[in-house]
Every structure is written in structure tokens, then in C-alpha cells.
Design brief:
- Helix 1 (5-13) crosses helix 3 (29-38), helix 2 (18-25) packs across helix 3 (29-38) and helix 5 crosses helix 6 (75-84).
- This protein has four domains: 5-38, no CATH class; 51-97; 102-148, no CATH class; 155-214, no CATH class.
- Helices cover 44% and strands 7% of the residues.
- The strands form two sheets. The protein has a two-stranded antiparallel sheet with strand order 1-2. Strands 3-4 form a two-stranded antiparallel sheet.
- The protein has ten helices and four strands.
């Protein structure tokens, strides 16, 4: 793309910065400065920045980029001010620490960082601080899960019981196989597999019934969308 020096000069004299002009043309700031110097354009001096305030902002935790945006200067300009005043800059790890997510271990109560590094692929939903705590948590979950299992909770079991008690015909719409048939427990207790408690429903009526009872979304429909009445 061929740049028009006079057009760039007019934009700069109108008040736009070299960075903004460079972004508009999709070129570097150096290319814009080249054309401005070629036409002997009087350059604007950067505003006087109170260096003590800049140092205080950086010490309080703000980054050089954030301070530069606040004072309408580049981050490099802020870095030069910090070096001039003997302010040691934070390392990248320290700078990114304020963006990290911390959590409390559900096993030992220790405060831990969810991700060990900025580029770490660990899940943000971690509940434990270490592998040892994770094993303890999974062990407790397994014990609680086994203690809550009751006879008849197996899906295969109550499906077989339903087939022995009732034919494969949907009790709401009358559909028959090859449409998939489900077993619906009226009292929501999967261990109660009596003939009175079981209903034979096709997969569509089963989902529809749970939608009406629980106010859940159904296969792409939103909860506030009207549904056709069941037969």
C-alpha cells in the first residue's frame, strides 16, 4: 500500500497520534514518522508527566501498559521513567500473579493457585491443591456413592422389570418400536419398580414430561417457549 505523505501530515496536524495513524493504515509507527520527517512536519512534544505519581502507580500494582493508557503515552515511556527513578520492574511471573485465580482446597483448606503457570492447561474448576488431596476426595466420593446405592438402582434392572410388566407402547402418544422406549418412575424413586409406579414412555414424551415438571429446556427449546400439548 502506497502512503500519501500529505494525507498523513494532515491527519497528524488534526490531532491524531502517530500510533493511531499507523493503525489506520496498517503499517508501523516508523513508517508514519518517516513521512512526517520527510515533509518537515513540526512534531508535538509529549505532555509533561509527573514522575513521582507514575512511580506510585506502578508500586501500587498497575502495569506499565495501564499507566501508559491512563497518561496517553507508550509503555516504553513509562519504563524509561521507572528506570530513571531507580524503580525495579516486576518480573513477568510477578506481573501476571494478579490475574491468577486462587481457590481453597476442599480437603485440607489450603489456599492454592488453580493454575501453576500462566500457560498451564489445568482446569479452572480444580477443587484440590495436590494429587494427594485429589485421591482422598475421590476416595470419599466413592465411599459415599457406594453407601447410597440401593437394590433396583441399575437402569438395566428396571428396564427388564418394565418389559416384564408392561408392553412396549408409549402410554401418552401410543408410539411403538423402533422408537426408543424409556421407563419413567412416577415418584422419581428408581428403586420403586412396581407396575403402578412405572410408565412406558417414548423418548420424546419422556423428555416432554420432564420439561413440564421441572421447567427445563428441551432439545434446543428455551424454557419460555410454548410446547404442543401432549395427547
Amino acid at each position: 500500500m502506497k502512503l500519501n505523505g500529505e494525507e498523513i501530515q494532515n491527519l497528524y496536524l488534526s490531532g491524531l497520534s502517530t500510533v493511531t495513524i499507523a493503525q489506520n493504515y496498517g503499517v508501523s509507527k516508523v513508517a508514519i514518522l518517516y513521512h512526517l520527517h520527510k515533509l518537515k512536519t513540526p512534531m508535538r512534544h509529549p505532555p509533561t508527566i509527573p514522575e513521582p505519581i507514575i512511580c506510585e502507580l506502578y508500586i501500587s500494582g498497575k502495569s506499565t501498559v495501564e499507566i501508559g493508557r491512563e497518561w496517553n503515552v507508550s509503555a516504553q515511556c513509562i519504563k524509561i521513567i521507572l528506570e530513571r527513578n531507580g524503580i525495579s520492574r516486576r518480573s513477568k511471573k510477578e506481573a501476571l500473579e494478579k490475574y491468577s485465580k486462587h481457590s481453597i482446597c476442599v480437603v485440607c483448606g489450603k489456599d492454592f493457585r488453580v493454575r501453576s503457570g500462566w500457560k498451564d492447561g489445568g482446569s479452572l474448576s480444580r477443587k484440590t491443591c495436590s494429587e494427594n488431596c485429589l485421591h482422598l476426595l475421590l476416595h470419599d466420593i466413592q465411599i459415599n456413592h457406594n453407601s447410597n446405592i440401593k437394590k433396583g438402582d441399575s437402569q438395566g434392572r428396571y428396564q427388564r422389570i418394565r418389559r416384564e410388566l408392561k408392553p412396549d407402547v408409549c402410554e401418552l402418544c401410543g408410539a411403538v418400536p423402533p422408537v426408543r422406549m424409556d421407563s419413567h418412575h412416577k415418584d422419581r424413586n428408581k428403586s420403586n419398580n412396581t407396575k403402578e409406579n412405572l410408565m412406558v414412555l417414548c423418548v420424546h414424551c419422556h423428555a416432554h414430561l420432564h420439561y413440564l415438571e421441572d421447567d427445563r429446556g428441551l432439545r434446543g427449546r428455551k424454557p419460555n417457549q410454548p410446547l404442543p400439548l401432549l395427547p
